[in-house]
Structures are given as C-alpha cells and as structure tokens.
Amino acid sequence: MSPLLATLLQITNLPQAFAAIGASIAVIGAGIGIGKIGASAMEAMARQPEASGTIRMSMIIMAAFVEGVALFAIVLCFLVLYS
Question: In 3D, which of 82, 79, 77, 43 has the Cα closest to residue 59?
C-alpha cells in the first residue's frame, strides 16, 4: 500500500482528505508544468541559439511562477489539514 493511500485512509475528516488530495495534485501539477516549460525552452534554444539568454531568463521566471502557485496551494492545504 502506498504511503499516500495509507495517509488518506487514516484521515476521517472529509475536508482534511480533500486537502491531502489537493496538496498531491499541486505537487504533480507543478512537476508537469515545470517539465513542459523546460522542454519548450530547450526546443526554442535549439531553434534559435542566439536568443538562448532571453529564453533561459523567461524559463526561470515562469518556473518560479509555477512553483510559487504550487507552494501556495500546498500551504493552503496544510492549513486545512492542521487547523
């Protein structure tokens, strides 16, 4: 049995279960989003090597935005879990 499933089965309060599921979805979504950003940036740098500095800067800024939204979602879910 996976640790996530075991944790969800131990939670008896429905809002807490939804918070745990929401935190998991936020982490998975952030991973997918940052992966897509990185893949698109690598493809763009391969097509236009002269613009790699601008593309890299834009990639880092967008990855920070995605990570910030995911972190906000996780903090919100933990507030629901432990309050």
Answer: 43
